[in-house]
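User: My instructor asked us to take a sequence, write out its structure as tokens, and then describe one feature of it. I'm not sure where to start. Here is the sequence I was given:
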Amino acid sequence: RLVAHAFESAVRGRLKINAPMSFGALKLAPCLPELLARYPDLDLDLTLTDRFVDLMEEGYDLSLRISSLEDSSYIARRIAKVRSRIVGAPALFRARGLPSHPNELSAYPALLYANRRTPTQFRLKHPEGEVSDVTLTPRLVASSSEAMLPVAVAGLGILMAPDFIVDAPIARGELVPVLTEWQLPEAELHALFPHNRHLSAKVRAFVDFAVEKFGQN
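Assistant: Let's start with the prediction itself. The structure tokens for your sequence are:
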């Protein structure tokens, strides 16, 4: 207990962090009261943005990123897998029918996340080994999947988005998952930090907290 108290006492000062917009608002923000209560001498400077952030140039202590990690210039700690689903409103599928294979998705209007490297192109994999490359027809392209939810719920297009964005509208019956046996590319939630920041107590405390909260999801 003395060791834990000593560590908590060392967690102090301002921690400048960056997180994806929807994940930050829907998942991270509800956890912040507990984090700040646990570390009373810790102050947060939180920026929510989906653009690429240069941690060193912009003075961030760490960044949470959801991606397939390619940048090796930072230290990264994997926190959780992030699974995505294909969803649409019941009205859309009543009007157009349910897709039975990914190659049918191109016939539906699509709501596409702008910050993907290839927003209109997806590769879906079936557990039995089949791979399907799909090119979607954009009705709306936006830099926030969460911002496209009302359009999806209105039945104006299919949406491919992470579980943490679509779980609630699915539970309310506003959206229906389709082609559930097919797997979209999995991304991962990582904590990234510059090499000179990873030993700081406040960075370690935040990363451990993120693993505690999101590592099982």
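For the description part of your assignment, you could build on this observation: Residues 26 and 164 are 8 Å apart (CA to CA). Try explaining in your own words what that tells you about the chain.
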